[in-house]
Amino acid sequence: MRYLVLACRSLFKKGQHNVLKIVSLAVGLAVGLLLLAKVFFLRSYDTFYPGCENIYRVRMDYSVGEENGESFTTSGAVAPGMAAEIPGVETYARLVGYYPEYGTVMDLKGNRYSVEEVGMVDTTWFDLFKTPVLAGDPGKIFSNPLGAMVSRKMAERMGGISQVIGKQLYVEEYPMHRFTVEGVFEDLPENSSLSQEILISIHTPLLFQRLLSNWNGGERFQSFVRLSPGVDPSSLSPALDEMIDRHVGFENLEQEGLMMHYSLWPLTDYVMMHEQVRVMFRMLLLMAVVLLLVSVLNYGLISVSGILNRTREIAVRKCYGAGNKDILRLSLAETALHTSIALILAVLIVLSCGNIVEEMLDVPVTALLFSRGGLSLLLVCVLLVLVSAFLPARFMGKVPVASAFRNLSSRRRSWKTGLLVFQFAASAFVLCLLLGVSRQYGAMVNNDPGYDYDNLVYLNVSAVDTSFRTSLAQELERLPEVRGVTLSTSLFFEGASGNNVFMPGSTEILFNVCDLYFAGDAYFDVTGLEIVEGKAFREGVRYSDEVMVSKSFAEKIKPLVDWPGGVIGHRIGVTEHSGMGSYFEICGVYEDLRV
Known about the structure:
Elements: H1 2-9, H2 18-43, E1 55-64, E2 67-71, H3 78-85, E3 89-98, E4 104-107, E5 112-114, E6 118-121, H4 125-128, E7 133-135, H5 138-141, E8 147-151, H6 152-157, H7 161-164, E9 168-170, E10 179-185, E11 198-201, E12 222-227, H8 237-247, H9 250-255, E13 258-266, H10 275-305, H11 311-319, H12 324-352, H13 354-361, H14 365-369, H15 373-397, H16 414-445, H17 466-478, E14 497-502, E15 509-515, H18 523-527, E16 531-534, E17 546-550, H19 551-557, E18 571-574, E19 584-590
Parallel strand pairs: 6-11, 8-10, 17-19
Antiparallel strand pairs: 1-2, 1-12, 1-13, 3-6, 3-12, 4-5, 4-9, 7-10, 8-11, 9-10, 14-15, 14-18, 16-19, 18-19
Subcellular location: Cell membrane
Membrane topology: Multi-pass membrane protein
GO molecular function, one term: transmembrane transporter activity
């Protein structure tokens, strides 16, 4: 305590540059610790579930012709089949995500409530993911095809937990399917890879029930299993392959040009398995370490440069019996005080820029600073105090007692120059890294998506019948402000489903395609999508057998078929669309676009 009092007395002492040291350290801590907090946050995903070390996602590795891929969605029967047929699998749960078109659900009074995603789950969901349940019995609720549970936040938006029980909700696309809220569960933390605010029964009419028993096809289920303690997931691979072979038949798949293999992936490693997340993790960690190192070096250099101004003070203390341990304790007290003040300033800086931080790191500041990683940040601060205090204490301990009676100067500048060079090099590295990230961000934002999005607006009319949609499009087209109107099933920026391509008369799958489904008249004129070969669809044809493909599709199919004149005029089959022997004629090729 005595050393801390001495440190407080010298806080504003002339010649020690304490304000400069604290401010520079605060800025470095604000940025460095924030980046480090994001690193710890990425490593903490899904670790809050009890028994998370035994929970696994089911992963499917597949090949379609010459194309290989991986997916964490499976057919409906895979997860329950594992629990029933493979020893070591205790229980399972499935999730099908549903995204309301308008991002809202409605009650019977017409009130809208925003929601990002609705999840369709099994009765075993809360047996696997032991989230606190605030009201209701999940087993009974999800046994009811129209039963639902909402999160605490969702319940509060609807008037509170007591008010939400019994409320009927529906999505605008399917107003005839109304589900009843019968329970409430605790909000999931920010570091959860699952973000559903509404959970409804997987037996809901919104989902084709035949998909639940499919062993092949309909891969839209996120499947989870819990293994018995001590079971090695890799040891279950032979049993998994045997199960799939028994129910599907690898020979049948090979005849169709398909192959699949299931494996188990730890739940807590799911976020980090994505390559872009791993790259971001390494980059953030590198920047955080460099920034904190630069801050510590800057603090140390300022402290050491002021030692000559404190030589008489240190020498006098030694005359009164202070030893090297006392000097070290004084340095530790000063550094701890400066770091504490700098840390408080850093937190204030971060909180004042909370909106900017959340936009850049995609995580609320409170979740970053006050999560389980907060203890790690405190340990980092303690380490910084020890490192920052060592250099000044080491050089103050070498101050001779004679300097109390005569001026002392040092000509040993090589070590200072070396540290300064290192600091400048580290600062230059961070600057170059930031410039590189800025250029990458600019390239991503300004990248041409392949279509003209200026003045392009859309309206979801999936909840109305075909005749009304047609009338609405005709009325819009009459407006002088409207240059063109078209209809389409999919939006480019919302992603797309996949389907397989095959040749007429053959069951062999050539490859998987991104399927944008159906488009109306004037589609290419309205979107500005460039046609590079052939022509657009014939207009006014109600049931057309024409199909248009992208430039990359034309290049991919070229080595697989004998079409010397190109793809125009040839016919293909597309799963989901080519039932009852119907095939489609390629009428045009459009430029590649970003989906």
